[in-house]
Specification:
The chain has 335 residues and is of the alpha/beta class. The protein has 10 helices and 12 strands.
């Protein structure tokens, strides 16, 4: 990944997370967060030196953008996409001309109609429909810079499974967050770090990248803005290797955000507590088996810690509520 000194927190395997930083391709630090209950794995030592170049073919990259009345913003975002993005999936629930603006900027864009309200529903539909090896999600309001996408993809080509953006690590920042939102985000980050035994620097930020191989293992169910937290927490609990990279949040180019600080902050906290309760009921940290890539456990293997009951474990009424809130297949209406 580049040269440079390694910053390391040595906890001697006392159950706290090990982490180290290295500069990425653009010189920005990349913070690798590793949760350990008994110290590092033997294979970690070589990673802490210079990252070797990937020997695999360049991955295909799908960008998922949920939109709701972003006609004045989406064109600027699409015009600035890096060449590495091979597919753009727009999940739209707009009443304005967002679709037309998007199509005029990116004729090959795939547009998914998602009638169910909520960012979580839109994001899950887009993730399920995307075809790339790497899935990147970002907003369409201009607050996230498309130029940062390579920074998110790079760790995934070098042994990591999930990259999350952080506005509050070295190299990151926010020109849009209010004092109330900053305070609330800090409280939620601290809660997540205590409950999960990690040291994240940001939690409620929807700029991330994940290898599609692991998408089904996350078992995402959120319908609103709390989807951003659910993805991060689930990635941690199922055992994905996570990188944190700096990102600068800019003011919206136009319009008003649909985020409601108190309401959505409460939903985020509820998500954290729910996942922690599942983790404790399973008897400790979750290390799910995800090597097969199909979300299925090998025959005879017990359910991993952190496993959430599937539709077969629920009452018919609960199943009906879940299935109507989530995309059922890739055959979602597409234009």
């Amino acid at each position: 990944m580049g040269d440079g000194a390694v910053s390391e927190d040595n906890t001697n395997g006392q159950g706290r997370d090990d982490w180290f930083e290295l500069p990425g391709t653009d010189g920005a630090p990349v913070r690798f967060v590793e949760r350990r209950q008994g110290g590092r794995r033997h294979g970690d030592t070589h990673i802490m030196g210079e990252m070797p170049p990937s020997l695999l073919p360049a991955p295909t990259v799908s960008l998922i953008i949920p939109t709701m009345n972003e006609a004045r913003n989406v064109g600027d975002v699409l015009d600035r996409l890096p060449a590495m993005v091979t597919e753009v999936v727009l999940v739209d629930a707009s009443s304005d001309v967002t679709k037309l603006m998007a199509r005029s900027s990116r004729p090959d864009i795939r547009i998914i109609n998602e009638p169910a309200p909520g960012k979580g529903n839109a994001l899950r539909a887009g993730l399920a429909a995307a075809r790339g090896d790497v899935l990147v999600a970002m907003d369409a309001d201009g607050s996230m810079s498309p130029e940062e996408i390579p920074r998110f993809v790079h760790p995934l080509a070098h042994g990591f499974d999930f990259t999350k953006g952080s506005r509050f690590m070295a190299g990151g920042g926010s020109l849009d967050i209010t004092p109330v939102r900053r305070l609330g985000n800090r409280a939620l980050v601290e809660a997540a770090n205590i409950l999960l035994g990690v040291r994240y620097t940001d939690l409620c930020y929807g700029f991330f990248a994940i290898r599609r191989l692991f998408l089904e293992s996350l078992d995402l169910r959120s319908t609103g803005f709390e989807i951003e937290t659910e993805i991060i927490v689930r990635a941690q609990l199922v055992g994905l290797r996570i990188a944190e990279v700096p990102s600068v949040e800019l003011p919206r180019r136009s319009g008003v955000s649909n985020l409601r600080t108190v309401r959505d902050g409460t939903r985020v906290l509820r998500t954290l507590l729910t996942e922690r309760r599942i983790q404790r009921a399973a008897g400790g940290p979750a290390v799910a088996s995800v090597e097969s890539g199909d979300g299925q456990r090998p025959p005879g293997m017990p359910a991993a810690a952190g496993h959430r009951p599937g539709p077969g474990d629920r009452s018919p009424r609960a199943v009906e509520r879940i299935e109507t809130a989530r995309p059922t297949s890739r055959s979602t209406a597409e234009r």
